[in-house]
Amino acid sequence: MRNIVLKRKSVKRTGRHPEILANGNVLQNVLQNMLQNVLVVVKRTLLTAMLVSATQVVDAQHTMKKYDEVGNFSEGLAVVQVDNKLGFIDKAGNEVVPLRYDGMLAGLIDFAFSDGLAQVKLKGKWGFIDKAGNEVIPCKYDRVAHFSEGLADVQLNGKWGFIDKAGHEVIPCKYDQVGYFLEGFADVLLNEKWGIIDKTGREVIPCQYDQIGSFSEGLAPVKSNGKWGFIDKQGSEVIPPRYGQVWYFSDGLAEVQLAGKLGFIDRTGKEVIPLKYEGARVFSEDLAPVQLDGKWGFVDKSGKEVIPLIYEGAGIFTEGLADVQLNGKWGFIDKTGQEVTPYKYDYTDRFSEGLAKVHLNSKWGFIDKTGKEVIPIKYDQAEHFSENLTEVQLDGKRMYIDTSGKPVICEL
């Protein structure tokens, strides 16, 4: 399944069913890896990568290599491109996988390493390499996707199945579409109906639903006759289809919509937070943002409005803080509603690795959880931190910086 938008905590990912919307990281490490390892690709002209130490930039005599494009680091390696050929470099700038594979970083394919393997394309066919550049799974498939829970979905002769890391086809290529394995199960499409299989290929849920989502906290959303409900891993409809939209379970609760109003149910289907809100987001760190009469605040799992609905906008809590908008400006609050940073930013982003990206007067920088601007707000562009590095642009030049703001990879 390749066409639904899932809301899980704070990171949006393109998924499979348009009715299921969710915010970010709720499916623990797998989904985080799937979701937060998606490449942030930037076009660049004649990028020169050169290693710097933790305290100073190495001079231009050190290892240098010109690339047309470079992706973010994932599992210690970054994909690079020259003339539509792809390879990989490490954080020392060494080209550990030669530029011999086909592809362009401007597309939607994620070439990053996941579970120690990366998908590559050669002469129109797809396979997988390890971090030494060995083709551990030959390039023979029409399409492939990342490994998840030890299995990767592959397409051969128009049909999808699954292989293990040794390249063994553990589930035959017979399905019209498939999803990733999560919590030991994957959703599959056969003859225009969706079901769920386990890692042996057994159809634990027959292909009988109009649409279906992945399991989260033991339950999966299903659509039947235009309505959404939830099934357990035995296939029982523990929450019968009655809702217009549903979200995945997060922190024990799922957001649901009925007659244009939003609320939350528990895993038994009990509506623990009334369906009365105009807007809502998933629970994260025991609190969820909700909107009523055009204003946002936060409720706890009992439905109590613990942070008043006074804000023009609100994100979810990550690392103990949430970004909120007041009088047209953004800042951060803690779980008591206490203002941690002034409401002065044009845009803010969630905290990741202890830092949050902020935008002020057309420039980007980073603050810590005390509100201190630890990386000056001077950059024209900035990305999220990944593996303690982020890419920034200053005066037309791009570079990678670490969490102290020191350059790690610089552009001539």
Report on the structure:
With 412 residues, the chain is mainly β. The chain folds into two domains: 1-37 and 114-284, no CATH class; 289-379, Thrombin, subunit H (Beta Barrel), CATH 2.40.10. It is built from one helix and 41 strands. Strands 3-4-5-6-7 form a five-stranded antiparallel beta sheet, with no helix packed on it. Strands 11-12-13-14 form a four-stranded antiparallel beta sheet, with no helix packed on it. Strands 15-16-17-18 form a four-stranded antiparallel beta sheet, with no helix packed on it.
Task: Indicate the percent of residues in helices.
Answer: under 10%
Overall tally of domains: 2
Number of helices: 1
Give the strand order, joined by hyphens, for the main sheet: 3-4-5-6-7
Low-confidence stretches: 1-64
Tell me, briefly, the overall form.
flat
Report the sheet with the most strands, covering strand number, pairing sense and barrel closure. Answer: 5 strands, antiparallel
Instruction: Give the beta-strand count.
Output: 41
